[in-house]
User: What shape does this take?
Amino acid sequence: MAEASSIPVQKTPAVVGTTLREHVLHGMHAAPGATGEFTSLLNHVSLAIRIINSRVRAAGLADLLGYTGETNVQGESVQKLDAFANEVLLNVLERSGHCGVIGSEEVDEAILAHHHGKYVVLFDPLDGSSNIDTNVGIGTIFAILRRSDPKLSRPSLADALRPGREIVAAGYVLYGPSTIFVLSTGQGCHGFTLDPAIGEFFLSQPDIKVPARGTCYSVNEGNFSRWTPEIQKWARWIKGEVPAGTNPDGSEPFKTPYGARYVGSMVADAHRTLLKGGVFAYPADAKSKSGKLRLLYEANPMAFLFEQAGGAATNGKERILDIMPTELHQRTPVILGSRDDVAAFRHFMSGERG
Ligand code: FBP
Assistant: This one.
């Protein structure tokens, strides 16, 4: 009679997917010296997101559409749902006890929270606010950094003004037809879908890889007349108005024209680009001389995710993650997406092409 140990164990096929909590916990077990604080912080972020999601889904019924009447540090009129999402994230993060510094798109100054809080969390509570009232995809974006010496130093703005390459985790949530949470803790980029019946995120797109080249471009062409001649050349090139020509790096010629896709919510446009490839760009122009998007809580977290997925992100001159921040709400030109498509944009910006 065979030894019990040699009898193959019949594993029941997994009918229950991997939850976000399990995925993060697994990461923690793999990290030497992990204390569980990082996992707990990510679980707090996930709680805030599920609360925001519940209101986004019923915004029209919960008197959460329209404006609060206030203006934020960006000079924008604050939308009720933006203010609500901001309150929820601030509340949950402060209560977590893990944050030394919190930075929000909706709050002028950095919030110096817990003296010994190990982490810095920077977020855009509701991205794509111009689309809130028209029920188009909107999102939440965040980045997490570890404070260099929480035991000794008091929390300060300097803890937040660090290059994106020091990010330890970043993510965004797209409140679209389904609620998708894309997260990276430095081990690749993974997508989770919220099961609204259970209120739990399940792993739905493990190890996302951006294709090296895409077939779509995403930019607000309404700004064309304000762009530099180099960027206008890129736009004519990607629309096939001029021959594709040869690449300065000798790589396979591009197949233009590309298709145009633009939602006007960075999270929605970036998510499509992450999965399908291509390029999303919000370059600087004569009106927005430093671009429109914010470095610390829009460009950096997205750049971290795209690089974790094998893509690229630049301001046209350097890697977004190498930019040294000087202000909490500073803006930057953003070009992100497939490696080859971002390289092509850079070649036009630097005048190497066109
Ligand atoms: P907020 O909504 O968080 O302010 O973000 C800015 C944003 O809405 C991005 O999501 C989007 O990519 C961009 O501005 C759209 O700008 P525009 O309307 O000029 O194309």
